[in-house]
Amino acid sequence: MVNRRAFTLLEMIVASVLIGTMLTLCLQVLTATVAARRRAEIRLIALQQSANVMERLAAVPWEDLSEENIAKLQLDKQVHRLLPEAQLDIEMTVPPDEPPAKRITVSIGWSDRAGQPVRPVRVVAWRYGGI
What we know:
Mean pLDDT: 89
Low-confidence stretches: none
Largest sheet: 3 strands, antiparallel
Radius of gyration: 27 Å
Order of helices and strands: HHHEEE
Number of strands: 3
Distance between the termini: 98 Å
Oligomer: single chain
Number of domains: 1
Number of helices: 3
Helix content: 40-55%
Shape: rod-shaped
């Protein structure tokens, strides 16, 4: 009768290959998760910046809310550090309806590290005058 108390070399090699495979898969999942979190953080920063720009526009009196004044707004320096190629686009449309209204769209677009454009963040608000 043979009394086996230790692992054979073949069992150790198989176990090492399985452990190595699992570690490789875990590292790939971890890397993908970190990259997705980074993209989400950048998107959140862009969304917060566009909301800040919209708040600045909300503070402008109705009479002063013009294309010329809107064109003066810029992104914060901190956003340019995180998103060097970020572009701020503010669009104002005035529908012919009553009461007088202005539809303001603030969007921020940027490119990822590979230089590919990312879907921009947009915030839309309506301003009403004379109310």
